[in-house]
Amino acid sequence: MTIPSAPLLNLTGIQAGYGEINVLWGVDLTLARGEITALVGSNGAGKSTLMRTLSGLIVPTAGRIDWAGEDLCGQSPAQILARGIAHVPEGRRLFSSMNVEDNLLMGAYARKEPRAAIRRDLDRVYATFPKLHERLGQAAGTLSGGEQQMCAIGRGMMSAPRLLIIDELSLGLSPLLVEQLVEALRSLNREGLSILVVEQDVITALELSTSAFVMDMGRIVQSGRSAELMHDPAIRSAYLGALAA
Amino acid sequence: MLILQILLNAIVLGSLYACIAAGFSLVWGVLNVINLMHGSFIVLGSYLAWGAYKALGVAPWTSLLIAAPVFFILGYGIQRGVLNRVIAAPVLVTLTLTFGLDLILNNAMLVAFKADYRQLVLDPSLGSLSVGSLVVPVDRIVAMIFSLLLTLALFFVLRRSRVGRAIVAVRMDRDAARLMGVDVPSIYATAFGLGTAMAGCAGVLLAMIFPISPIASGSYLGKAFVVCVLGGLGSVPGAVVGGLFLAIVESFGSLVLGPENAVTLSFGLLIVFLIVRPQGLLGKRGFE
Fold first, then answer.
1. Terminal-residue alpha carbon distance, chain B
2. Domain with CATH 3.40.50.300 in chain A
3. Chain A residue with minimal CA distance to B169?
């Protein structure tokens, strides 16, 4: 696949897993700068493991994660975050007893900038997700699923990232809520933020993204422009089931 | 009037219990470490207050300014240098390690200070406060006020400060906290340092009321343990509620059953709570 714009992130031969169990078997993946990219695949394909590897929660056993000429392999999550990669994990993983605003401020924990800059980004999150402003003093654990996802994305935005990774954007959410989140992500992307969305819902992922990668059994098995993949017979039969028929 | 007097004494005692338990609860809640050194840190704090008063004439409440940073650094160093190396091991490993470290610390205090009871006697005495027939020694009121202030300070550090939010975040979800850029080993050390500082400061305040001896450490550790279970592990309000509850039960239980049964009563209460309401009075929530 050819990527027209300059690559933002380049993964080569990534192998990783949990202890002695290997999950990723030589993943190659290139993200274009300023684009929304989707990573799709069935449950257990290794998508979340790849995201955890990207953000430093798992140290790869082989391969290279190239980010602006630097290899991120072996760097801590704090170092990777400082480089500009924020990870919204699967299941949102909010700090449930903390209120919404404290959760968002935790997103800016590693930033050394003046309070005014952090306040400005907080206001930006509230402008993107006005629901969060209405709930800023509410414990995050008591929010609805959609509001929790907004809070998790907002928390990711608060680190002022260059690449935002969102693992399972639509999991457990109604189509209407997913549409709102998709709109918010498009708006953030228009402002220059590169986004990598990991999704089981292939239609949502391909409609949202410019390019996409398909993962299976710990490997990238297909990649291309999302619009083209949407009409690919193999993708349609494997992932779009009823629609293909 | 007797009931009111007992209640008043219980509130004073309960606030000290809260101060003893808040740091223990913080360490247990955040690090999942049952710190068996906590009682010895309290006794060491008492010796610091006693020594500072005897040698330099420094009042115990002024000694708090020395005890807080000294014990914080001590706790931070122990966590960073020793406990962090085994923090991922099962809780029995850290329990055994703190047991071993406690043996060293406690026996070092026995060598340094002997097992004789020491008493910090303020001269001149602060006297007593009387309201009607109720009488409370002023040193106890001072100890209560500082205990509550310290506990409140810990509450606000955890609730309002950047490092406090990080401690709470690590307690709730360590991996999510790492994704926010939190240096988890450093936060562990900070939480252990805060817990140790609370123990040392509690010791300073207890020195104003109780005799000082290394053998008292087991009793303080037991109180901390019971208060955490009664109030609910993992919160400062839990420590306050648990501390007051234990002191009230002990005080009124002593009246009915005799003071010799106070310890039996508190541990009996511990067993009842572990069976009936293991989450404690306030429940098991995030540390806040």
1. 37
2. 1-84+161-245
3. A95
Listed by number, the residues of chain B in 30-89 with a beta carbon closer than 8 Å to a beta carbon of chain A are none
Query: Which residues of B are less than 8 Å from A159 in CB distance?
Result: 180-181
A96 to B168: CB separation less than 8 angstroms, yes or no: no
What angle (nearest 5°) sits at the alpha carbon of residue B52, between those of residues B49 and B58? 95
Number of inter-chain CB pairs under 8 A, A vs B: 69
What percent helix, strand, coil does chain B show, rounded to 5?
Answer: 75, 5, 20
Asked whether the beta carbons of residue B175 and residue A155 sit closer than 8 angstroms, the reply is: no
Where on the phi/psi map is residue A46: left (φ > 0), alpha (ψ -120 to 50), or beta?
A: left
> First-to-last CA distance in chain A?
27
Residue A82 buriedness (CB in 10 A; 0-12 / 13-18 / 19+): middle
Domain A1-84+161-245 has CATH 3.40.50.300: yes
Which residues of chain A make contact with B185, given a CB cutoff of 8 A?
none
- What is the average per-residue pLDDT within A14-29? 93
Compute the nearest-CA separation of A134 from chain B (Å): 21
Alpha helix ranges (H) inside B161-216: 162-172, 174-179, 184-206
Inspect the interface and report whether the beta carbons of B173 and A93 lie closer than 8 Å: yes
Q: Indicate whether B213 pLDDT > 90.
A: yes
Interface test with B, best of A97, A115, A167 (most B CBs within 10 A): A97
Chain A contact present for B157, CB below 8 A? no
Helices B60-81 and B138-160, packing angle to 10 deg? 40
Residue A182 near residue A176 (C-beta atoms within 8 A): no
User: For residue A19, how far is the Cα from the chain centroid?
Assistant: 24
Would you kindly state where each structural domain of chain B is located, as residue ranges? Answer: 2-217
Using a CB-CB distance cutoff of 8 angstroms, which residues of chain B are in contact with residue A86? 179
- Averaged pLDDT, B29-42: 93
Contact A93 B179 (CB under 8 A): yes
Collapsed DSSP state (helix, strand, coil) of residue B227? helix
A84 part of contact set with chain B, CB < 8 Å: no
> Within 10 A of B30 (CB to CB), how many other CB atoms are there?
25
pLDDT band per the 50, 70, 90 thresholds, residue A4: low
Position B30 scores a pLDDT of 87
pLDDT at B204 over 80: yes
